[in-house]
# Entry
Amino acid sequence: MPTCHSTNDMALEMVRKHDTVEGTVIITNEQTKGRGQRGNQWSSSAGENLTLSLILNPRFLKVPEQFYLNKIISLAVFSSVHDLVPDCDCLIKWPNDILIANKKVAGILIENNVKGSTLESSVVGIGLNVNQLNFGILNATSLASSSGKEFNLEAVFEKLILNIESYYLKLKSGRLDEIKQEYLQSLYGYKVPIRLREEYEFMGEIVDVESSGHLIVSAKRKVHRFDFKEVEFLL
Ligand code: BTN
# Structure
């Protein structure tokens, strides 16, 4: 599709109309109202990056385990970045930003639809900066900016989808411990002192991420448990 307001909004509308099969991908060259986490905007230059939404039906996932979907999608994007820019300093920033050298290269927005105790459908929105070189903000990067090379968008898309499929099958087959360990090992600040801010700035180390997605940080005086948006990383 050449242009649309937001691939996540389009996918949510299709889900609402029951007009989908699992694995449907909505992809566009340009979004006019791309959405990010916490109600933010997602801006991306037309034709230079990947902006897509994937529809999944993870009915095998119980609601308290829903963060596993964020973990596998983060790992799939992280692995794709690693495959494409092999020597880069790539990490996942909790809950699901992908960084290269502490700058954001990809963002993920997952919107779940719960039925009873399981996930009925999920819209997985991914914005991966590929060939864009100028962002107008300091803390963003792309595969091209960090490697000095230009990428074929179709080849990047193919790699990303194959990685998502492989991690999704891992999740479906219940390999939760393996996924958790892989996610933690790829996480910015895992067992490494980092600067964070709640009300005040403090130093701490991430020691765990619970199935619910809560972040566990060990600091000098106590162990903190944070929900989304309750803590900020000072990169
Ligand atoms: C974030 O804030 O980090 C999440 C960004 C998610 C952006 C993607 S681009 C494709 C999909 N459609 C949207 O409107 N948002 C997501």
User: Anything to note?
Assistant: The longest strand covers residues 103-115. The CA atoms of residues 214 and 227 lie 5 Å apart.
